[in-house]
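Worked example

This section walks through a single chain of length 122. The input is the sequence exactly as stored; nothing has been trimmed or padded.
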Amino acid sequence: MGWTFREDLPIYSQLVDEMTRAIVSGAYAPGERLPTVRDLALDAGVNPNTVQRALSELERSALVYTQRTAGRFVTEDRAVIAQAREQMAANKINEFLHEMDGLGFTREQIGALLAAQPKKDN
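Given that input, the structure is written out below as tokens.
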């Protein structure tokens, strides 16, 4: 993962967001074993305690679980993953709408701007 951290948010919170994104996008498959805390910390260039805090948050949200002595794994519950994906999308949409409101756009104008955008090929 390419880690880039912003100054305006706690690092553990950004780790939670990036790990969640990796899970909901399929970069980490359901049931896949996650890298160790130490490996994630080295990769991200952060303190292992920060990674531990982020992983604990992901466990609370049921996106990951711990198997004693085997490590942490992505949940196999696809409904939990789908719910996290929808929540991330809702947050992004709310953020976008807030920014557009700040620029003085109405919902109708925003809709017209979106409709005018060319479709992206996947």
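What to look for: The mean pLDDT is 94.
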